[in-house]
Amino acid sequence: MAVRSCRLLLLLLLLVFWLLSGQVLQTLSLTIGINYGQIANNLPSPTRVAGLLQSLNISRVKLYDADQKVLSAFLNTNIEFIIGIGNENVSTMTDLAKAQAWLQQHVKPYIPHTRITCITVGNEVFTSNDTVLKSNLLPAMQSVYQALVALGLDKQVNVTTAHSLDILGNSYPPSSGSFRQDLAEYIHPLLNFHSMTKSPFLVNAYPYFAYKANPNTISLEYVLFQPNAGVPDPNTNLNYDNMLDAQVDSVYTAIQAMGQTDIDVRISETGWPSKGDPDEAGATPENAAIYNGNLLRRIAMNQGTPLKPSVPIDIYVFALFNEDLKPGPTSERNYGLFYPDGTPVYNIGLRGYLPLMSSSSKRMANPLEILLL
């Protein structure tokens, strides 16, 4: 009798744990931002992707364009969008009339049924060698902002751009973070714009890149959010137990060094590849699962950085799918959480399904359940 009671108690505890885990996962999924790239020839339709993201309860999506098929597929889904203006169109956007025309075509028709909350003008522009492009970035952002004001949308749609961490001249220790001197003439007025419009400063932060470049000197535990002694900042005595925090605080310090203290830093991309070339150290499914799994747990805990512990980091994970047409090393095509058929590349803590389309084009749930934990 006592043995049976113990077994029943154990089963009850396991059931409670399972239910609580489900609640944690549900809460976790509600806070995830995801990058939805489409440089591939085998991805599911946007309508099916909308179903997948809804089943995962992912409520924030970042695009690299303003694909009308995607925005139409997400009508009335309550999913929040960052949309993008590509580098090839930045110079065009310096013309206010053309910026207004772009908004009339790519934003106005979808609001409020598709929740567009941010427009990125260009991506990693300051890593380009194109001085004209760099010079046109801020005028383009200003034109898009002015066009939003004219449409009465400036209070609900931010204007920003996303930066590579290569814009930093110094990143260690975080308290000594600074922008490259050759970019100061561009970044200083850009920060004034962010301060004036209350828009976020976006960075694409990849501890993976640092580890790949120096696998013998950088601790894998440090970049994967695993237990480690941490790296102290000798100027502040703050201890950093992961590289992502250190990268974000370096950006905050660089911004403060230019006189701004009221600009939010947000991570527009971060992730870890599940496959790479022989010279791409650490690009494995195991490491990708550890990095993104720990990242999502961190998001769920609403943690800040050592420099700003009360300010949770806003993060968009890169990326939703593996993209088979991306150029560059093998890793570039293997950042996805999912394969194009909707199966997980590795398990990290979300549940959902990729809908199938019946012959009559009606949506039907795929019995495949994505269980990631």
From TrEMBL:
Q: Name one process (GO BP) from the record.
A: carbohydrate metabolic process
Report the family membership. Answer: Belongs to the glycosyl hydrolase 17 family.
| Keywords for the protein's UniProt record, in alphabetical order | Glycosidase, Hydrolase, Signal
Protein name listed in UniProt: glucan endo-1,3-beta-D-glucosidase
Q: Which organism is it from?
A: Phoenix dactylifera (Date palm)
As its record notes, the protein acts as a catalyst of: Hydrolysis of (1->3)-beta-D-glucosidic linkages in (1->3)-beta-D-glucans
Keyword Membrane (UniProt)? no
Q: Into which EC class is this enzyme placed? A: hydrolase
Q: Extract the signal peptide range.
A: 1-22
Q: Quote the EC number.
A: 3.2.1.39
Q: Name one Pfam family in it.
A: Glyco_hydro_17
Q: Name one GO molecular function term.
A: glucan endo-1,3-beta-D-glucosidase activity
